[in-house]
TrEMBL record:
The species this protein was found in: Lactobacillus rodentium
UniProt cross-references to SUPFAM superfamilies, sorted A to Z: Ribokinase-like
Protein name: Hydroxymethylpyrimidine/phosphomethylpyrimidine kinase
InterPro entries the record matches: HMP/HMP-P_kinase_dom, PM/HMP-P_kinase-1, Ribokinase-like
Cited NCBIfam families: HMP-P_kinase
GO cellular component terms attached to this protein's record: cytosol
Length: 279
């Protein structure tokens, strides 16, 4: 009998976007592209296409709890990420299960405000997110607008961003990655990483003009999750994730009529080629 190949297992706790561009599909595309076996714990289902989101259904809490139980009964989950959770009850259930099963390497993608500034989470659910989920984060990955809301300060300078990251650490998140604006006002998109040991890194990539950006944040946080599952440290995981996501953005594909997905296939090829060169 052929010996089975070892494969790291990672979990996405997220909603399913019916068009495949964001949420759980984007996470699973990313896990596969980075050589990790992806598990999917469904929190919601979205009816949407490249033009927008038109309906959403949340999963019952009992069903979410059951998914946690059966997955942890069978798999060795090395890293997990959260995406769209949607309600106070769902957030509470997710936090309780992450603690119950002592799940390691938790990546929190807040999904509370879009990259364009639209709010996605009601106030009561937002407070539960702050109180119960943020303190569990191995790393939290807010976009620019989410970082402003979470820290309650305007981010006008680099020092403001540093302060916001420190505030998130004070809330309990061990490591913080604040993603830069994607507006095209500047030539670069700069992300700021504050590590648990208080060291910091700025990661920059050229701004790439495209409307094919659905799933960008999901992909970045999923790539971090995949690399943590494989045993990389936070710094290396974030660096790989930044490169992977940029390559997916900068090689757009025509899928859908408006705000299409990024290109995980191109990013996978680039990642594999770099891996071969480093061997």
């Amino acid at each position: 009998m052929t010996e089975l190949e070892e494969h790291a297992e990672a979990l996405t706790i997220a909603g399913n976007d019916s068009d495949g561009s964001a949420g759980m599909p984007a996470d699973l595309h990313t896990f596969y592209a980075l050589g990790v076996y992806g598990l999917g714990l469904l929190t919601s289902a979205v009816a949407g296409n490249s033009k927008g989101i038109f309906a959403q259904e949340l999963m019952p809490v009992d069903f979410i709890n059951r998914q946690f139980q059966v997955l942890n009964d069978d798999y060795v989950i090395k890293a997990s990420k959260t995406g769209m959770l949607g309600s106070k009850d769902v957030i509470h259930a997710v936090a309780e299960n992450l603690k119950k099963f002592k799940m390691p390497n938790i990546v929190i993608d807040p999904v509370i405000i879009t990259k364009h500034g639209a709010t996605l989470l009601e106030d009561e659910a937002y407070q539960t997110f702050l109180d119960e989920l943020v303190p569990l984060a191995t790393i939290i990955t807010p976009n620019f607008y989410e970082a402003q809301k979470l820290s309650e300060i305007e981010l006008n300078t680099d020092d403001d961003i540093r302060q916001a990251a420190q505030i998130l650490q004070n809330m309990g998140a061990k490591n913080v990655l604040i993603k830069g604006k994607h507006t095209g006002d500047e030539a670069e998109v700069r992300d700021y990483l504050l590590l648990e040991d208080s060291s910091e890194i700025w990661l920059s990539k050229p701004y790439f003009e495209t409307n094919r950006i659905n799933g960008t944040g999901d992909t970045l946080s999923a790539a971090i999750t995949a690399e943590l599952a494989k045993g990389n440290d936070i710094k290396r995981a974030v660096e790989i994730a930044k490169d992977f996501t940029y390559y997916a953005i900068s090689h757009p594909i025509k899928v859908g009529s408006l705000y299409g997905p990024i290109n995980h296939g191109a990013a996978q090829k680039d990642y594999e080629e770099k891996g071969q060169q480093n061997n």
